[in-house]
Amino acid sequence: GDACGPRGDGREGMAGDDDDDISVYITETEFVECMYEVIDRTRGYTRTYLLPMPGTRVKWEEPTFKPSLSQKSMHLASRTRPPNMPNHEILYNSAADTSAKIERLKQELEEQEMKLCTFEP
Protein backbone atom coordinates (compact mmCIF):
# COMPACT_ATOMS: atom_id res chain seq x y z
CA GLY A 1 0.00 0.00 0.00
CA ASP A 2 0.79 3.68 -0.04
CA ALA A 3 3.15 4.57 2.84
CA CYS A 4 1.58 8.02 3.13
CA GLY A 5 -2.03 6.96 2.79
CA PRO A 6 -4.51 5.73 5.37
CA ARG A 7 -3.66 2.67 7.40
CA GLY A 8 -5.79 -0.41 7.21
CA ASP A 9 -7.75 0.55 10.32
CA GLY A 10 -9.00 3.81 8.78
CA ARG A 11 -6.96 6.00 11.13
CA GLU A 12 -4.39 8.19 9.41
CA GLY A 13 -2.49 9.37 12.47
CA MET A 14 -2.95 13.05 11.69
CA ALA A 15 -2.60 15.86 14.22
CA GLY A 16 -5.88 16.76 15.77
CA ASP A 17 -6.96 13.14 16.27
CA ASP A 18 -8.23 12.13 19.67
CA ASP A 19 -4.77 10.86 20.59
CA ASP A 20 -2.02 13.37 19.73
CA ASP A 21 0.69 10.68 20.06
CA ILE A 22 1.37 9.96 16.38
CA SER A 23 3.76 7.12 17.25
CA VAL A 24 0.72 4.97 18.02
CA TYR A 25 -0.31 5.09 14.34
CA ILE A 26 2.95 5.21 12.36
CA THR A 27 6.42 3.83 12.97
CA GLU A 28 9.62 5.73 12.40
CA THR A 29 10.39 3.60 9.34
CA GLU A 30 6.96 4.32 7.85
CA PHE A 31 7.48 8.02 8.51
CA VAL A 32 10.85 8.04 6.76
CA GLU A 33 9.40 6.09 3.81
CA CYS A 34 6.55 8.59 3.60
CA MET A 35 8.93 11.55 3.62
CA TYR A 36 11.06 10.02 0.85
CA GLU A 37 7.91 9.44 -1.18
CA VAL A 38 6.86 13.09 -0.75
CA ILE A 39 10.35 14.30 -1.73
CA ASP A 40 10.33 12.06 -4.83
CA ARG A 41 6.83 13.20 -5.77
CA THR A 42 7.68 16.91 -5.46
CA ARG A 43 11.18 16.63 -6.98
CA GLY A 44 12.80 18.20 -3.91
CA TYR A 45 10.68 21.38 -3.93
CA THR A 46 8.92 20.52 -0.69
CA ARG A 47 9.91 23.74 1.04
CA THR A 48 9.37 26.38 -1.60
CA TYR A 49 6.48 27.68 0.48
CA LEU A 50 9.07 28.94 2.96
CA LEU A 51 10.71 31.20 0.39
CA PRO A 52 9.48 34.78 0.01
CA MET A 53 7.23 35.44 -2.94
CA PRO A 54 9.21 36.66 -6.02
CA GLY A 55 7.51 40.07 -5.95
CA THR A 56 8.44 40.67 -2.30
CA ARG A 57 12.15 39.90 -2.57
CA VAL A 58 14.27 42.97 -1.89
CA LYS A 59 17.42 43.55 -3.90
CA TRP A 60 20.58 43.77 -1.85
CA GLU A 61 21.91 47.29 -1.60
CA GLU A 62 25.05 48.39 0.13
CA PRO A 63 24.16 50.08 3.44
CA THR A 64 24.50 53.85 3.42
CA PHE A 65 24.36 54.29 7.20
CA LYS A 66 22.07 57.22 6.60
CA PRO A 67 18.39 56.86 7.46
CA SER A 68 15.76 57.65 4.87
CA LEU A 69 13.42 60.25 6.32
CA SER A 70 10.01 61.13 5.02
CA GLN A 71 9.14 64.69 4.06
CA LYS A 72 6.71 64.84 6.99
CA SER A 73 9.45 63.87 9.48
CA MET A 74 11.82 66.45 8.03
CA HIS A 75 9.12 69.13 8.23
CA LEU A 76 8.35 68.31 11.88
CA ALA A 77 12.05 68.37 12.77
CA SER A 78 12.63 71.68 10.99
CA ARG A 79 10.05 73.37 13.22
CA THR A 80 12.14 72.81 16.35
CA ARG A 81 15.73 72.58 15.07
CA PRO A 82 18.03 75.23 13.61
CA PRO A 83 18.20 74.73 9.83
CA ASN A 84 21.95 75.21 9.33
CA MET A 85 23.20 72.91 12.08
CA PRO A 86 23.91 69.17 11.57
CA ASN A 87 21.77 66.79 13.60
CA HIS A 88 24.69 65.28 15.49
CA GLU A 89 25.70 68.72 16.77
CA ILE A 90 22.13 69.48 17.82
CA LEU A 91 21.96 66.20 19.74
CA TYR A 92 25.37 66.75 21.32
CA ASN A 93 24.42 70.26 22.47
CA SER A 94 21.10 68.98 23.78
CA ALA A 95 22.89 66.30 25.84
CA ALA A 96 25.33 68.90 27.20
CA ASP A 97 22.44 71.19 28.18
CA THR A 98 20.67 68.31 29.93
CA SER A 99 23.83 67.35 31.85
CA ALA A 100 24.34 70.96 32.97
CA LYS A 101 20.73 71.17 34.13
CA ILE A 102 21.08 67.94 36.14
CA GLU A 103 24.26 69.22 37.79
CA ARG A 104 22.59 72.54 38.65
CA LEU A 105 19.59 70.73 40.19
CA LYS A 106 21.89 68.47 42.24
CA GLN A 107 23.76 71.50 43.55
CA GLU A 108 20.51 73.27 44.48
CA LEU A 109 19.29 70.18 46.31
CA GLU A 110 22.55 69.91 48.22
CA GLU A 111 22.35 73.61 49.20
CA GLN A 112 18.78 73.11 50.47
CA GLU A 113 19.87 70.12 52.55
CA MET A 114 22.74 72.13 54.03
CA LYS A 115 20.31 74.89 55.10
CA LEU A 116 18.40 72.32 57.12
CA CYS A 117 21.53 71.21 58.86
CA THR A 118 21.87 72.96 62.26
CA PHE A 119 25.30 71.61 63.12
CA GLU A 120 28.25 73.92 62.48
CA PRO A 121 31.79 72.67 63.07
Brief sketch in words of this structure:
The chain has 121 residues and is mainly alpha-helical. 45% of the residues lie in helices and 0% in strands.
Give the end-to-end Cα distance, rounded to a whole number of Å. 101 Å
Q: Taking Cα atoms only, what radius of gyration do you get, to the nearest Å?
A: 35 Å
Overall mean pLDDT: 76
Number of helices, counting only DSSP H or I runs of 4 residues or more: 3
Structural class: mainly alpha
Q: Outline the biggest β-sheet.
A: none
Work out the number of β strands.
0
Write down the overall geometry: elongated
Low-confidence stretches: 7-17
H/E element string?
Answer: HHH
Percent of residues in helical segments?
Answer: 40-55%
Q: In percent terms, what proportion of residues is strand?
A: under 5%
